[in-house]
Amino acid sequence: MFGTQPIATHCPGPPHGDWHRFVAEALTPVPPCQCPEATILTWNGFNRPDKPNGLFERSLERLGLKALVLGSPSEPWMNIHKLRLTADALERVDTPYVIGADSSDVIFLDNPQIAVDRFRQHFACDLLFNSTGSRCWPELPEFVSYQSSRPMAAVAQQRHWINSGLFVGKTEFCREYFRRLSQESPVEGYEYDDQSIVMRTWPEWYPRVQADYLSQIFQWFNEDRTVMRLERRTDPRQTALVNWLRRLPMPIVGAEVGVFDGHTSEVLLRELPELRLWMVDPWRPYQGQSVYGEMTVERFEAMKNAALWWTEFARDRRFVLPEASPRAATRFADASLDFAFIDADHDYESVRADLAAWWPRVRSGGLLTGHAYGIYLDTTGEWGVRRAVDEFAQAIHREVTLGADGTWCVQK
Questions:
Q1: Fold annotation for 236-411
Q2: What are residue 220's DSSP bridge partners?
Q3: CB within 8 A of 249, min separation 6: which ones?
Q4: 240 to each of 184, 257, 304, 373, how far by Cα in Å?
Q5: Cβ pair 375, 405 in contact under 8 A
Q6: CATH tag, 8-220
Q7: What is the C-alpha separation between 98 and 175, in angstroms, rounded?
């Protein structure tokens, strides 16, 4: 990648493609080497059948090196433990540099000392994390927005997401950094996770903390799978929505609230190549009465998988927020969206709450839109879409524009 020869490679997702070839190469015998300037740390976390712990250590052993293995076998493992374990270990480290790598999915292809040399020669920061292209995880608006705004993000060809599973840094700085992060409160909804804390605090530490965007030291491993060009039929309501959105100055950022099987997401991403779309849906049974209330957990999981599969072609432009509305709206800053498309629960109170929650997130000139206005059960009053939308529009002194198949639109 980027014409470089990486020192280490990282496979943070499911192993596939030529990963096993890399593993085989990393485990072939070579003459032993030395890495006098760095202490190498690793963490034995979850021991997955497809990615067992110990791979990183084995890749070091063939180089004649050993890692300091951190873990806490007496308590159930959570990745957030890495921060405290690393902070404690760094108090005992006496080398000027430190390298950290996940045990199950990182392999060193060459002497780690070369990683230290390149870090010192090519980077002005104090700590360098691996940069990956698979996805921003966790996919939260503040994380995606900040990381996408870094100067190197455009140059990195969508491989600009920071990953905490592989790093090299100056020991003195890392002592302070990991000690401070170990004292941070967890990110809500990701209480088990260290990477979410790394992402949340990055603005505080930037530019002393950076990512290896161009794979000068670390290589993110992935091989794009071939996806057949399949498309579902575009419905009239989706055509209406696309036509409204095309009037907005591009590029645009929007949220679809209520994704279900991803049909509308697919159409929007296909028809609007300059769209970055948030797919907001908890994909779990609703509390109380709902048109989808009788569906099982397994059925919702199948719908989520379908939504992700059908939008895979635009994976660099679609982001998934698996939370229920209106709570999900609190993840977004005011005036941060060009549009929000409301197609979640259709009862009056739910629609009313969604409108109130998402309207502030839409910028001036943007659109609040939705579906199911005056159709199906809304005609009998069992739903409350039309009633809620009309009352909302009247309260904010806006007109409601109607489109095909129950679509509606209010411009801010």
A1: Rossmann fold (3.40.50)
A2: 10
A3: none
A4: 46, 17, 24, 13
A5: yes
A6: 3.90.550
A7: 10
Place of tokens 């000027």: 96
* Strand residues in 171-295 grouped as ranges (E): 209-212, 218-220, 252-257, 275-280
**Tokens 């199906």, located at residue:** 376
Strands 252-257 and 337-342: parallel
Residue 202's contacts (CB-CB under 8 Å, 6 or more residues apart) are 146, 147, 162, 209
Average pLDDT on 27-51 reads: 83
Query: pLDDT by residue (tens digit) across 294-341?
Result: 667 877 887 888 888 889 889 999 999 999 999 999 999 999 999 999
Do residues 387 and 395 touch, judged by C-beta distance below 8 A?
no
The full set of domain ranges for the chain reads 8-220, 236-411
Q: How far apart are CA 209 and CA 177, in angstroms?
A: 9
DSSP string for residues in 214-247: T-SSEEE---PPP-----PPPPHHHHHHHHHHTT
β 337-342/362-370 pair status? parallel
Q: How confident is the model at residue 225 (pLDDT cuts 50, 70, 90)?
A: very low
CA–CA dist 194, 201 (Å, integer):
11
Residue 353's H or E segment, with its range, is: helix 348-358
Predicted structure pTM score: 0.72
Residue 90 contacts residue 15 (beta carbons within 8 Å): no
Report the alpha-carbon distance of residue 159 to residue 319 in Å, rounded.
Answer: 15
Q: Which helix (H) or strand (E) holds 393?
A: helix 385-396
Amino acid at 193: D
How many Cα neighbours within 13 Å face the side chain of 330?
8
Which residues, 6 or more positions from 40, have their beta carbon under 8 angstroms from its beta carbon?
60, 65, 66, 67, 68, 98, 99, 100, 101, 112
